[in-house]
Amino acid sequence: GRLRKYLNCTEIATVGVIQEKRHSGIGSAVVNELIRRCPKEIYVLCVIPRFFDRLCFTEVKTFPAVFQKKIEFCKKYGFNEDEIFVMLHKKITG
Fold first, then answer.
1. Model pTM score
2. Cα–Cα distances in Å, from 91 out to 41, 61, 81, 94?
């Protein structure tokens, strides 16, 4: 996994766990570490919203323009628009 920084937002990008190690908590640990390192808000574009929902991400319909380009890219690989999600995680401070 990695953080990708744009002018107006930060994205969790390219999260992956090899098949043999999936469902062992590695993906969650990677994403949680990226969240820890990020600013107050962090976006993710994904096709597995249930995974990110468990990590306190929420689907958003309003998002930075860079994600519309990414949605169009995903469509070229056979995903329908209703299978592609932009999600946002906001850190709670206090």
1. 0.89
2. 6, 19, 27, 10
